Amino acid sequence: MPRYPDRRVPYYICPRCKERSVDIDAREGFSKDAPACRHCGFGFLFELLDDYYPAPDTGFVVTDQERRVLAIGRGVFELTGFGEPDLIGRDVVEALQLSDPKPVELAREWGVRRLGEQLSITTRAGNEKHVVADVFPAYDDDGGLLVALTPRRG
């Protein structure tokens, strides 16, 4: 029998290394230091309502509350052709030319996850690429987003 059966144990995911962690010791929320990835030290962690297993070729983009790109994780360059200098500070919807801004807007405005959104992006070379987008709001005061983009198959 679990020691704390009513306690919700938060799951976190790192956009840079894609490692998941479980906050079993409550270290993430009660420190004067911002939470960082325990595996690679990256400064952005996103709390998930459920554990999330991205595909190996998923790319992560971290935004602020105004949709501006703060950081990109592993897989974004391979998917889009854009490096961090090309995207930092730009609106994620405009920079990647997302075919539909609604999933990003809904996640931002209502604080809800949008999973399995069928979208297309435009790569640095100008090619349209079909992707599945999962958009996660930050559950803290900064109001940012984690946008996971996975190439669609078939």
- What CATH architecture do you see? 2-Layer Sandwich
Structural class: alpha+beta
> In CATH, what is the class?
Alpha Beta
Note the beta-strand portion. 25-35%
Topology:
Elements: E1 11-13, E2 20-22, E3 46-48, E4 59-63, E5 69-72, H1 76-80, H2 84-87, H3 92-95, H4 102-110, E6 114-122, E7 128-137, E8 145-151
Antiparallel strand pairs: 1-2, 1-3, 4-5, 4-8, 6-7, 7-8
Structural features, described:
With 154 residues, the protein is α+β, with helices and mostly antiparallel strands. The protein has a single domain (11-151), classed as PAS domain (Beta-Lactamase, 2-Layer Sandwich), CATH 3.30.450. The chain has 4 helices and 8 strands, in the order E-E-E-E-E-H-H-H-H-E-E-E. The strands form 2 sheets. A 5-stranded antiparallel sheet has the order 5-4-8-7-6. Strands 2-1-3 form a 3-stranded antiparallel sheet, with no helix packed on it. Strand 6 (114-122) and strand 7 (128-137) form a beta hairpin. The model is unreliable at 1-6 (pLDDT under 50).
